[in-house]
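Page 47, continued from p. 46.
Same chain as before, 355 aa.
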Amino acid sequence: MTKPRARDLGLPFPGEPGPWNAITDAPGVSVGFTTLTDPARRMRTGVTAILPRQERGWPRPVRAGQFTLNGNGEMTGTHWIEDAGYLAGPILITNTHGVGAAHHGATRWMIERYAGYFGAEHAWAMPVVAETYDGVLNDINALHVTPEHAMAALDAAATGPVAEGSVGGGNGMIAYEFKGGTGTASRRARIGGADYTVGALVQANHGIRPWLTILGKPVGRTMTEGRLLPREQGSIIVILATDAPLSALSLRHLARRAAIGIGRNGTPGGNNSGDIFLAFATADIGPMPQLDAPLLTRTELNGEVIDPLYLAAVEAVEEAVVNALVAGEDAPTVKPEGLVVRAIDHEALIRAFRD
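Result:
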């Protein structure tokens, strides 16, 4: 049975989503998962993979920008994105202790996927791997994630609808003391007579219950049962994708707007939370720069007209976090043992917006 999403519960989110209401509404973007659950091994973790492009043999870069609201976390490859304004290859999200394994697997996958490029050139792989901590629901010190799991998630990447909740890297995550995890949403925007899409995917593992706000309603203050945490100790990763031809500078600005999106749900960006965001544009910018012409001509949207994209990003991130919560399922804790992280109560949400 298909899980309901936030809009299915009647939550009146603003804006116009794409057909899937997912990051895959940005043309060419695909998402795959490896989900690892074994109660006997105290295992509840996984890997989420995002491919900006589907090419083989030779990679083509995408412009990108990154922003960190609070740095208690990891996203690899961002120093080069900051300097070069592009990325080439996949993006993965996993748990904190799985970053090395996922990076190893993504590197192997890139060498095999882009065999022509790595065979002919002095090529280097710099995949983006981000993380949030799942040690309450998963024995994170057992190092369950392997390079093969990362490669399997990449091989599984597909367009179309995207699973949410306890899938991939989101499998062991908690948000606002409810079961959290993977969530996605999208928005359309019209600029200069052209239609563009902004899609968001989040790995939501942040916030405490009293902060939770949905569409302006402080619902966390009334949903007091099953609280777990006296203070913030999680993180959130946000990936934004758009087909708008944005410069690297504009993409950095777009990534910043993810902070407003998560803020709408109540988080102030707690000190123990790694709130790290990345935005990329799928509009083709040609081959790898070292293989391109000396003089380049670019097409990009004027930064003065992209406010509709900023709003689209804020709305998509806000809804993606709620979709992650709505898709949650009860999960037993492993540290400490004997507790249960509850899924958010759908009926309570419906009542909150009916009153």
